[in-house]
Each structure stands twice: as structure tokens, then as C-alpha cells.
Design a protein that fits this description.
It contains five helices and no strands. It has 178 residues and is an all-alpha fold. It has one domain.
Length: 178
């Protein structure tokens, strides 16, 4: 074989190897994107369940306070509100406002409980408040996990030399929850 044929074969081998390495690089990035997307979906579902449980506990505590004779207009309005009493998923962009609404009611209930003085009923309200505090801590932990997964997803989406392929396949960046 002549030296030109050997050079041509080496060139073909090098180019083929580079193409296979690049395709492997692209496939690995898509694999990790898929894994992080699955984790993001699971975390968002968990956050929605925590929000629902919090609203359910807030509803129970507000109903209890109203049955005990507290006639606070905001508490009565929340007790009559049915928008969060049935489970419905909330999008990541709306979570902050939904959580802030729940915190408003939580602070109102806490302010009523501070002035509440009645034997065993205080234990019931304390259990409701402890449950809400536990749900809040789990909510914040899950938000942190969600945001970590979003950072991982966006890293693999914006990976050097492969971003153009992800744009071509319309793989958009995902925003973190604030």
C-alpha cells in the first residue's frame, strides 16, 4: 500500500472516531437531561402534594376555629374558598404565589392561636400548627432539590458543542423556583 492510501485510511479512522465520540457525547448529554427532567417532574409532584396537605391542614384548623366561635372575616372567607381544597397541580411559576397565600392564612391562624386559651383544644390547634411547620420544612427541602435538579438539567442542556442540537429539538431551559 502506498503512503497516500495509508494516510487516507488513518484520516478516515480519525474522523470516524471523532464522530463516534461526538455522538456519544451528545447521547450522554440527552441521557442526563432525561434523568434530571424525570427528577424535576417528581419533585414538582411532591411540592404539589405538600401544598395540598398544607391547605388541607389550614382548612381543618380554620374550620375548627370557626366552630369554636372565632368570627374573623378572613378566616371565614378562607373556609368558604374551595379553590385549593381539591387537589390540583400547580405549575412551577405559580408556586410562589400559592405558597404566599397559604402563609397569609397560616399567620392569621397563628395570631388567633396566640390569644386562644382553652384546655384541650389548644393541643388540637398545636398539632395543626406543628403539622404545618413540618410541611413547610419539607416544602423548602423539596424546593431546594427541585432547584438542584433544574441546575443539573440546564447544565446538560447548555453543554458545550451540543447546545445547538438541543435548540433544534426544542429542549428549553427550565427556571428555578424562587
Amino acid at each position: 500500500m502506498s503512503s497516500e492510501v495509508i494516510r487516507a485510511l488513518w484520516l478516515i479512522v480519525v474522523i470516524t472516531t471523532a464522530i463516534f465520540i461526538y455522538l456519544g457525547y451528545v447521547l450522554v448529554s440527552f441521557y442526563f437531561m432525561r434523568q434530571f427532567k424525570r427528577k424535576i417532574t417528581n419533585a414538582l409532584s411532591s411540592i404539589n402534594v405538600l401544598i395540598y396537605q398544607k391547605y388541607e391542614t389550614l382548612d381543618d384548623s380554620s374550620h375548627f376555629l370557626i366552630s369554636e366561635g372565632y368570627e374573623n372575616p378572613k378566616l371565614i372567607a378562607f373556609d368558604l374558598l374551595n379553590s385549593y381544597k381539591n387537589y390540583k397541580p400547580v405549575g412551577a411559576k405559580d408556586l410562589e404565589s400559592v405558597f404566599n397565600d397559604s402563609e397569609t392564612i397560616y399567620i392569621l391562624i397563628k395570631s388567633i392561636v396566640i390569644n386562644y386559651r382553652s384546655g384541650d383544644d389548644v393541643k388540637t390547634l398545636a398539632n395543626y400548627l406543628n403539622t404545618i411547620d413540618l410541611l413547610n420544612s419539607r416544602y423548602f427541602e423539596t424546593i431546594q432539590l427541585y432547584n438542584t435538579y433544574v441546575v443539573g438539567y440546564n447544565y446538560w442542556r447548555n453543554l458545550f458543542f451540543t447546545k445547538w442540537i438541543k435548540v433544534l429539538f426544542r429542549k428549553e431551559e427550565i427556571d428555578t423556583i424562587k
